[in-house]
Design brief:
The complex is a heterodimer of chains A (about 250) and B (about 300).
Chain A lengths: L7 E12 L2 E12 L3 E5 L6 H7 L10 E9 L2 E2 L7 H7 E4 L10 H11 L6 H11 L3 H4 L12 H14 L4 E5 L7 H14 L4 E5 L3 H7 L2 E6 L2 E7 H6 L4 H7 L5
Parallel strand pairs in A: 3-8, 3-9, 6-7, 7-8
Antiparallel strand pairs in A: 1-2, 1-4, 4-5, 9-10
Chain B lengths: L1 H6 L5 H42 L2 H6 L3 E2 L6 E2 L2 H32 L2 H16 L2 H19 L8 H25 L3 H8 L5 H12 L1 H17 L2 H7 L16 H10 L7 H31 L5
Antiparallel strand pairs in B: 1-2
Classes of the chains: A alpha/beta (about 250), B mainly alpha (about 300).
Bound molecules: adenosine-5'-triphosphate and magnesium ion.
The site of adenosine-5'-triphosphate (ATP) has 12 residues of chain A, from α1.
């Protein structure tokens, strides 16, 4: 399906996921190409967030979570590797649906992760460069010591993106990053995604078809735990192979 | 049209009356508490004023000798204040780290069985009458202290601190536990997603986010510690002394008030009035702590809504 000339960075092989007895991901095999934006779409409850959270093992915190199959990052099975899970999380950053800055200062929001992980570079530079990349610097440069919570929702979400960028990850996972934001903040974040894909691989879950079409090169369509179709976004939106995909995209359900 | 309106009962006047009635009843409840407080303050100040007609406030607040019963009388309150503070600060030094530690354990680490054991155990501690604690301090803790440090007096501040620490521990642990649990999961997720470990997330993200609750528990515990009477009277004794040595006997403000209240001093005598002056000091200290806590919470603790 997906063109083979770009190498993949994340991959699932025959992945099944259960919450207790309930199977929510069915035999999904998927390769996320490097340095691209991949969108995940599908109706509510189809398993997008669940699939996304396996890429940085955030499902570990759910007691009833269980899986079969493999999840690979750069060819390494992240659930079976001896490498510590924190190492993978450092390299696979995440931005959540609801902005979740820390109560500490804006600067500290950015420096905390790197400091804990033994970053030796100049922290002030790191704060500035991360905030610049997240298109937030100009708005907050005079109040770096204010609480992260003192920002607007859109600013908070960009702070969370800056926080993720500061770790210099290879992948950034975004779970509906714009769903709590106004159109203007949404556009700012979409612009940002365009910038970021030069250096990062981005996987973004979205309910907004236009957004998926605007920001992504590849799109995965999930339905009821099945990966129905995964292809170049232009193809998915113009000539989807599956009727189900077409119906979803034109808004016949979901 | 008429059939539709038949389906729905009209709002009866009684329903509106009921709202009014509930509102008024609750307002009266609130008023009672306000009037009680005002009444207590009125009496406290009134009697204290009479006391200060005989003793200069300067001598009272800065005097270093408290000898209300014997000639020559002296009403310097500092020994009582220092007695109270010695015991309360000692209790807090023990109980705060312990209480926060327990809370972190119960809120973050304890699973099934330990959770089931720990919380009820703490609640039992909170339910034991303070006279039992006082007796326990005098008969068990003090001999233990004497075995370790032979110069320990029969009545001593250290044993009082220890039992008060046990008494305030459940308060601290339970409020801290609540406020740690109240830190949203989303914030923890954000922290873990940066590749950090549980202890780091707790120390750097969760506890600071729960700070307002933790500070509130400290203040409440301190207020309880300085207000505690029975245990300090039994364990620390009734000898007013200006000292920082926790192994000596001291008299706390509450212990003095209890002593005079139980003895047969006549109304209107200066000893009688002196307990109101001491009560006033106690009241001002607690009030100060509450104001301080509000200030700290506003100033330093940023909360998630
Ligand atoms: N912690 C959980 N425990 C039990 N079941 C869960 C849990 N989280 C999700 N589920 C179930 O798993 C299925 C997939 O959920 P998931 O959150 O991945 O869907 P989603 O595609 O992200 O939906 P949405 O678009 O509404 O965010 C749903 O049926 C949901 O009820
Ligand atoms: Mg979701």
């Amino acid at each position: 399906m997906v063109n083979s000339h770009s190498s993949s960075i994340l991959e699932t092989r025959n992945l099944n996921i259960y919450y207790g007895e309930k199977k929510v991901i069915r035999n999904v095999s998927l390769k996320v190409p490097k340095r691209t934006v991949t969108a995940m779409i599908g109706p509510s409850g189809c398993g997008k967030s669940t699939l996304l959270r396996t890429f940085n093992r955030m499902n570990d915190f759910i007691d009833i979570f269980r899986f079969e199959g493999e999840v690979l990052f750069e060819g390494t099975d992240i659930y079976r590797s001896k490498t510590d899970v924190t190492e993978f999380r450092r390299r696979v950053g995440m931005v959540f649906q609801k902005p979740n800055p820390f109560t500490s200062s804006i600067a500290k929001n950015i420096t905390w992760g790197p400091q804990i992980n033994g970053y030796r570079g100049d922290l002030n530079e790191l704060v500035e460069s991360s905030l610049r990349k997240a298109a937030l610097w100009d708005e907050v440069k005079d109040k770096l010591n204010d609480s992260g919570l003192a920002l607007s929702g859109g600013q908070q979400q960009r702070l969370c993106i800056a926080r993720a960028i500061a770790m210099d990850p290879e992948v950034i996972l975004m779970d509906e990053p714009c769903s709590a934001l106004d159109p203007q903040s949404t556009l700012a974040i979409e612009d940002l995604i365009h910038e970021l894909k030069q250096n990062y691989t981005i996987v973004i879950v979205t309910h907004n078809m236009q957004q998926a079409a605007r920001v992504s090169e590849f799109t995965a369509f999930l339905y009821n735990g099945d990966l129905i179709e995964f292809d170049e976004t232009s193809k998915i939106f113009s000539h989807p192979a599956e009727k189900l995909t077409r119906d979803y995209i034109v808004g016949r359900f979901g | 049209m008429s059939s539709k309106s038949q389906l729905w009962a009209k709002v009866s006047p009684w329903q509106r009356w009921r709202e009014e009635l509930v509102l008024r009843a609750l307002f009266i409840c609130a008023l009672i508490s306000v009037f009680t407080t005002l009444g207590i303050i009125y009496i406290l100040f009134g009697e204290s004023l009479q006391f200060f007609a005989h003793v200069s406030p300067l001598d009272f607040f800065f005097g270093r000798e408290w000898a209300p019963m014997f000639e020559p009388r002296s009403f310097g309150v500092l020994p009582l204040v220092s007695g109270t503070m010695l015991i309360a600060v000692g209790a807090l030094v023990i109980a705060l780290p312990l209480g926060v530690g327990i809370a972190i354990y119960t809120a973050e680490y304890a699973t099934g069985r330990w959770q089931k054991i720990l919380k009820p155990t703490l609640e039992i501690l909170a339910g034991i009458p303070s006279v039992v604690y006082g007796y326990f301090a005098l008969n068990k803790i003090t001999p233990l202290l004497q075995a370790i440090y032979p110069d320990t007096e029969v009545f001593n501040a250290a044993s009082a601190s220890l039992v008060i620490a046990i008494m305030i521990l459940p308060t601290i642990a339970s409020i801290c536990d609540d406020s740690i649990r109240a830190v949203p999961k989303a914030v923890r997720d954000g922290a873990y997603a940066l590749g950090t470990r549980k202890s780091e997330v707790i120390a750097h993200i969760v506890v600071p986010s729960a700070l307002s609750g933790i500070l509130a528990s400290f203040i409440l515990a301190f207020s309880r510690a300085i207000g505690e009477t029975m245990a300090v009277t039994l364990a620390a004794g009734a000898t007013p002394k200006l000292t920082l040595n926790p192994f000596e006997g001291v008299q706390a403000m509450t212990a003095y008030i209890a002593q005079v209240s139980m003895g047969d001093v006549s109304h209107g005598s200066i000893e009688y009035q002196s307990i109101f002056a001491v009560g006033l000091v106690l009241f001002l200290m607690t009030l100060g702590m509450n104001l301080l806590s509000q200030f700290i919470v506003k100033r330093y603790a940023r909360k998630y809504e």
